[in-house]
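Title: Prediction job returns without error message
Component: structure pipeline
Severity: low
Priority: P3
Assignee: unassigned

Description:
Job completed but the reporter wants confirmation the result is attached to the right record. Sequence as submitted:
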Amino acid sequence: MHLNVIGGSLTSNTSEFQQLNNYCKEKGLNLTLEWINGQYWLHSDDQKEKPIGIQIDQELNRHEEFFKRSSIVKELLARAVGVKAGIRPKILDLTGGLLGDTLLFLSFGCEVVTLERHPIIAFLIRSSLANAHHPALRRLTFLPQDVVTYLSHNPISEVVFFDPMFEDINEKTLPKKQMRIFRSFIGQDQDALAVYEFIRSLNPKRLVVKRPRLSIELGAGPQMKYEGKATRYDVYFSS
């Protein structure tokens, strides 16, 4: 079990390669990273599928074009995190993943601190950020850390966003490619409830937990819920 790298500067004699390779050995993984168009991409576990990567500039430009035609404040996620006319809260995103929500927050005009504790995903994020140039990225701080480490040295943001990896999905539907692959080497966030309780103990102004629409609540009694066709945002306010 090991890490295979195709192209780029991540060679076996670098400390970063050794750290990622040790992670693969520890988890019993065979992963392949490939240098494509200026950044690293993760190969799918299915050879018929394209590699996984984050095209940051393209995504931000796509959001930018969309919001020229549609109101930001009508977006479900924007409403969940408290975006209103003239109000753009600072957001702490606990689970960066492939930056899907983070890039939306930036498109809303928010300042964002994004964390990612899993080393392979954090590496993909760093690689994609090094290849991106969109001006909205000036409002992003990315840190490859867990939330406890981060909050031991930094104040909590007014809005905290938490999107844990979950297992209670609709058995009639398969998770999309990225989630399937991430589950294969990350698995469920077994400490999701502990992270939720830790954040709640700090009493942030607003905590937003992303869930599948039909999923159970991670924590009881959200004061508000915003439901879409497939996703639900449970919102908890400070006491």
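Comment from assignee: result matches the submitted record. Confidence is low (pLDDT under 50) at residues 169-174.
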